[in-house]
Amino acid sequence: MLPFSFREVLHYHHVTFDAAMLHTSQRGQLIRAFDDYLQFGGFPETLSRERAPEKRKLLQTYYRTVFYKDILERYNIKARPVLDQMMGSFLESYSTTFSISTFEKQLKTAGLIGSKRTISNYLHFLEEAFFLITSEKFAYSQRKRMMNPKKVYLMDTGFALLGGAFTENRGYLLENVVALELLRRQRRMFYFKATQECDFILQEGRHPSEAWQVCWEVTPRNEQRELKGLLEAMRQYKIPKGGILTYDQEEVRTINGMNVPLMPV
User: Fold this and answer.
1) 134-139 long-range contacts, Cβ below 8 Å, gap at least 24?
2) Whether residue 182 is found in the same domain as residue 262
3) How confident is the model over 25-80, as pLDDT tens digits?
4) Last residue of a domain, one of 186, 208, 223
């Protein structure tokens, strides 16, 4: 069972959403609600807590439940320090690719032993326990998809509170929210990586149908990187639809004669 979506969170707080609200004085109310959703997630019981320390304490309880009960007991985990290290790393590094080989080396550096098979199994267990969701690098060949690292997302953004600071990770949180919404909508999602990167490739039938970047704010400093990754993915796979999902920007940018929409998540 998934945590609440943002629309469900608004319903919980008795806020009726209409797209027209984004162009009225109620826009600020929606943005504040979305900020809370990004930071504290969508678990119903978390929403019922008013103070941030109470929300964090409840999320720690959920985290311990996933760790001790759902994983350790259900799968009779032997290498407990390895699982502990994995879960801790995901609280700090989500919305990024997870390399099993690299993590194996990190374990050795920390004086821990965990084989690639063990790490792969634990990653699967964390998905089964609804702590993580993953996406593969897009390729038509299933074998090629399996050979590349998966991109990892937290099942609820509130878990990130147990890791780094909100302001440092807000771009990753935004991407994580998009991944969760795509999962709710039962979309087949992948990531793209070649010369550049694109966060989401959506597949309909046998072929990619949409490409989307997620960026907190498109600025002169990152504009070329975001646009190049998006356009490379669209050109390579002849994808007809795409754009950049942002926190609060809504406009159209033109690059090489092609219009790219920027729209708030």
Assistant:
1) 134/98, 135/179, 135/189, 135/190, 135/191, 135/200, 136/190, 136/191, 137/190, 137/191, 137/192, 137/193, 138/190, 138/191, 138/192, 138/201, 138/203, 138/208, 138/237
2) no
3) 778 888 889 999 999 999 999 999 989 999 999 999 999 988 888 899 899 998 99
4) 186
